[in-house]
Amino acid sequence: MASESTWNDVDQYFTDTLGLNDPALEAALKSSEAAGLPPIAVSAPQGKLLQLLAVVRGARNILEIGTLGGYSTIALARALPEGGRLVSLEFSAKHAEVARGNIAAAGLADRVEVRVGAALDSLPQLQADGLGPFDLVFIDADKVNNAAYVRWALELARPGTLIVVDNVVRDGRVLDSSGEDPSVSGTRAALEFIAAEPRLDGTAVQTVGSKGYDGFVLALVTG
Predict the structure, then answer these.
(1) Domain with 191 in it
(2) CATH label of the domain that carries residue 53
C-alpha cells in the first residue's frame, strides 16, 4: 500500500511534470508562511483543478468562501475572462491583508475583491448588493458552517452554477456520526443538505496527496 510519503512524491511529480507551480503562486505561499498563516492552502494540482473547473464552466462571476493567503483565489481568478469578477470572503483581517498583497502581486487586483468579516454576515450583504448570481462557488472556510455556506451558495446561484466544497473527507473522520467533532458534523450536514435538495446534483471525490487524505464535493445547481 502506498504511504503518505508516496502521495507527496506523486503530487510533486505531477506539479513538476505539468508545470503547475509558477512565481506568483510560489510567492503567495512564501508570503503566507512569513506572515504566520497556517499551511492549509490547496495544493498546486488542486489549485489547477479549480482553475480548469472555472474555465470549463465559463465562469464570469466567482464566489470564494475562505481566502486564507489568496492561493486558491489566484488560481480561480486566472480563469476569469476580461470583465470577470471574483469575490472572496475572509474572516481574518490579517489573512485578508496578506491575500490582497498576493493577489496584487499576481496582477489580479482589478478583478478580485476580498471582503473581511464572518461569511454568514457577508453573504446576505452580497445578496443585498446584487452581486450574484455566481457561476462557481468555492467553499473552503470553517467546516462547522458548511451546510449554511452551501445553502447560501444555492441562494446566490442559478441553474448551471457549480459549487465546490473542500476538505470533506478529513482523513476519514467524515464517517463519525457521534457529533463530537463540530467540523465533521458541519460537513455531514452539508452532504445531507445536498442529497436532500432537489435543485442540486452532487458527488464526492476522495483525494490523497501533499494535503493528506481528504476530498471534495461537487454540486451542480440544476434548477
Answers:
(1) 4-221
(2) 3.40.50.150
Residue-by-residue pLDDT tens, the chain, 223 positions: 678 899 999 999 999 999 998 899 999 999 999 999 999 999 999 999 999 999 999 999 999 999 999 999 999 999 999 999 999 999 999 999 999 999 999 999 999 999 999 999 999 999 999 999 999 999 999 999 999 999 999 999 999 999 999 999 999 999 999 999 999 999 999 999 999 999 999 999 999 999 999 999 999 999 8
Q: CA-CA-CA-CA torsion for 165, 216, 112, 14, nearest 10 degrees? A: 180
Decide: pTM greater than 0.90. Answer: yes
User: Which cell is 34 given?
Assistant: 512569513
Tally of domains in the chain: 1
Cβ atoms of 65 and 119 within 8 Å: the answer is: yes
